[in-house]
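To the wet lab folks,

You asked to see what we're planning to order before we commit. Fair enough. Below is the target structure as tokens, and below that is the sequence we designed to fit it. If anything looks off to you, flag it before the synthesis order goes out.
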């Protein structure tokens, strides 16, 4: 089968992209409103793209009523946010936080999620997240007036102690159980893993006279 994007509706394009670009990491973004309420919302059109500086990006589309999402409103106002990652113990709460919450009700408070202060931004992080990155806005990119690509520069990292080998600078994979987004309300576990030997590449041809 073959499709040209211009022959599909936006919803149909989304369904194709979200059905095959799998699994996707989930940015559980905390931000803070003008009323002091802490918002936590998951975004699965997300990834990290660079280490120097550490850059991440996620996409925030408009609400069904056409208004901007609280996350975007908050980030525009403060230029700060925190990307929290989620693992199996937090997965259900992460999913529930994707529901519709008015600005005066913060998802962490409503769902009983513990917050912890960040070190370099005013926005708190989720205390039980396996990994969190404090971010400042690096760039906002408008897409067709109905979606914003939010690029953040990571300025501080938090790692759950038991997940990290400080000496080897390596994650303890047997202890880390991240959740990935599939599509609709489907998610995946990541414990069924495959390890290959190092790739060798093609053998080098001997030079002339060798």
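Sequence we intend to order:
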């Amino acid at each position: 089968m073959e499709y040209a994007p211009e022959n599909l509706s936006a919803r149909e394009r989304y369904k194709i992209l979200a059905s095959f670009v799998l699994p996707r990491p989930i940015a559980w973004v905390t931000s803070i409103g003008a009323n002091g309420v802490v918002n936590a919302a998951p975004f699965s059109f997300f990834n990290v793209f660079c280490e120097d500086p550490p850059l991440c990006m996620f996409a925030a589309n408009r609400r069904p009523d056409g208004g901007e999402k609280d996350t975007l409103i908050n980030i525009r106002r403060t230029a700060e946010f925190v990307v929290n990652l989620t693992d199996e113990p937090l997965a259900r709460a992460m999913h529930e936080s994707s529901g519709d919450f008015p600005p005066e009700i913060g998802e962490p408070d409503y769902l009983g999620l513990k917050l912890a202060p960040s070190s370099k931004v005013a926005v708190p992080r989720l205390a039980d997240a396996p990994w969190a990155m404090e971010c400042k806005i690096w760039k906002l990119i408008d897409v067709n007036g109905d979606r914003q690509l939010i690029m953040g520069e990571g300025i501080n990292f938090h790692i759950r102690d038991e997940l990290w080998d400080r000496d080897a600078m390596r994650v303890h994979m047997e202890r880390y159980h991240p959740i990935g987004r599939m599509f609709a309300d489907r998610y995946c576990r990541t414990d069924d893993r495959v390890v290959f030997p190092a790739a060798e590449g093609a053998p080098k041809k001997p030079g002339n006279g060798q």
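Structural context that might help your review: Residues 10-20 form the longest helix (11 residues). The first strand starts at residue 27 and ends at 32.

Thanks,
Computational group
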